[in-house]
Structure formats: C-alpha cells, structure tokens
Task: structure prediction
Amino acid sequence: MTSNETLELAPNEYRMDLGGTVIAVHCEPAEFAIGLGNWFSRPSSLAAPHIRLDLELIPHADVPHLPNSLVTTKTLLAGGRFDIADGLITGHYDPVAARGSIQAKGTLVRGALMRILEQIFYQAFWSARRVAGQDAFLIHSSAVIVDSQGFLFVGPSEAGKSTVAALSAQHHVLGDEMNLVRDTGSGLELVGTLFNGLFKAKRPGAAPLSGVFLLKQEPHHALTEAPLLEAIPALAAEMVPPVGLGEVPTKETLPQMMTLAETLATKSRLKFLEFLPDDGFWQVIAAEFGLEL
Result:
C-alpha cells in the first residue's frame, strides 16, 4: 500500500476489512463484487487495501471434489502458483507486490458452497496481516458483546457455537462461526468479521475481550476452571492455520497455532461453560463478570 493509494472503489471491486487488515478483491465477472457484498451482508470497505487479489470464476463441466479444508488439500506448483483440491481453486501470490490472482470453479458460488470459497479469504487474511503488521488471528467461534465487554465461545463442530449465537439475539452478536482477536498491546480485543454469509444476524463491532468459554453441553449451567494443559490444545484446534496464499502448512504450523492458543488462554479469563440450550447461561456469566443484562 502506498501513501497515495486511492480509496475509490473500482466497479468490479469488493474490499473486506478484517479488524483493520484490508483485502481488495477484483472480480471477474464484475457483478460478483456485488454478489460478495450481498453474501456477506456488508458493504465494501473504503479503507486502503493491504493486498489486492484478482478473483476469476471459471466455468466447468466436471463435478469437482469439494473438500472440508482448503488448506490441507493445497499444493505449491512451479512459478509460485498453488493448486487446491485438484483444480477446484488455483492461483498465484506475490508477497513483494502484495498482489495475487485466484481462479475458482463457478460451482463454489452456488448457495451454501460459498462457505468453502470463504476459506480462501482466511488465507488471504494471513497474507494481508503480514503487510499490515497486525498482531491478530482468526478463530472458529461465536462472539457476543454485552455491557461493552466481548465474550468468545469456542468449541468443535456441534459444540453449540451457533446455539449460543441464536440464544444471544437480545445482545450484540458479532458472529456465529469466525471471529478475530487482536492484541492491542494493552490487552486483547474481540472483533467481528463478515464470514459465514448464511448467518444474517451478525453485526459489526469490537470490544475488549473479557471472557473466553470452552463449550460443553450439559444438563445445567455452570462456569468451571479450564486447566491450561487441557484448554490450550482445545483452543489451538479451532485456530485458523497461519497459512497465507502462497504457502502450505509446514511442521511449524501446529506449534504456531499452539502459541496463538496460549496467548488467548493466558491473556483472557478462560472458563469451561457448561450449558443447556436456553439463554440461562447468560445469568451465570453475568454473575461471574459483573454484567448488567
């Protein structure tokens, strides 16, 4: 990003702001830029981008394999190119120019399959974050602001993240799937993201991170201690791997995720949240954290 970078949007451009890390996506066909705004239910950011991507949707006649993870099915090719899931997504990223290109098969923009395409922007976040110089990471979670305090709810699939978000509609719900944690130097800040376009109840926002809860579905509501030896691996499992567009996972990736988890665990109030599928868990949290509901 240069000092004379224009903030004006190109007609085919959608910019996503992820906690101050900004990615510009130039779309082909051009109308897909509008489609991204509609999917995310978020207007394009006017902030200057840290990286720029050319995204092209490719027509195809085959029925491609649709992986659960775009990271684990990614390979690096000659000339700095990458391939994901045998041609489902291909591309190139130049970290010096902070510029990349992505070609994605058109099936990925059909309904809920956009959730798969979203994952390429997780990788773009890590590339842009390095340009921005931010100390931040993405984590699979639901997040809610109550009484100007941020609360993060973490667990594997089916643990209850979406249930927590749905039961928190009377509060400021940042998201039910993917949120950002930023180290401000004076503490951790919780920031909502635009990810999971299927969840329309999310609202943008940020707040100091007051509590992190590892979810356990039980026949009661309770907050219990979360020993670090148990909590850190559980948090690490939900971290978005720190793998940029021109990278693949290495032997250092898991230790890096563990380090991020340790930061989250040691710089926040960490508890297990045992809960029923009703909003009574907020009374337990309010009593522990002194909230006015």
In short: The first strand starts at residue 13 and ends at 18. Residues 136-289 form one domain. The mean pLDDT is 95. The first helix runs from residue 32 to 40.
